[in-house]
Design goal:
Helix content: under 10%
Number of helices: 2
Order of helices and strands: EEEHEEEEHEE
Structural class: mainly beta
Strand content: over 45%
Number of strands: 9
CATH superfamily: Acid Proteases
């Protein structure tokens, strides 16, 4: 597992992001969701995150730029994700499924993202 922290651009808003290969899903805070189209969920989703249980009743398509590469992925809205090791509030938790979808790999020993596997086209069978 790895974790890398970066700012990403969410429709013109810089958002403090934790890329966490140990988290399956992607989560955003209401401040980030305010820049996106949000939908209510018919069935709220419960998750264990940061040592506590949280519930989301909204989701959005996260459209952002990660190191200059456009991405879009499903994200659940949580009132609060948590704070990082430096005490900074996490606004986006970018999970493993989204990283796999967009070819994002973590290089924890250098605190970098590897974008060399970013897809230039999707091949569907």
């Amino acid at each position: 597992m790895g974790r890398i922290r970066r700012m990403i651009d969410v429709r013109g808003r810089e958002s403090w992001t934790l890329f966490d290969s140990g988290a399956r899903r992607t989560y955003i805070t209401p401040a980030v969701a305010a820049k996106l189209t949000v939908s209510s969920l018919a069935n709220p989703v419960r998750t264990a995150l940061g040592g506590s249980h949280k519930q989301s009743s909204e989701a959005a398509v996260l459209e952002a730029s990660v190191e200059g590469f456009p991405i879009s992925t499903h994200a659940l809205v949580l009132d609060q994700i948590g704070i990082d090791e430096d005490g900074k509030p996490i606004e986006v938790l970018f999970g493993a499924l989204a990283m796999q979808e967009w070819g994002i790999r973590l290089i924890p020993e250098h605190e970098k993202l590897d974008m060399t596997h970013y897809p230039t086209e999707f091949l569907e069978f």
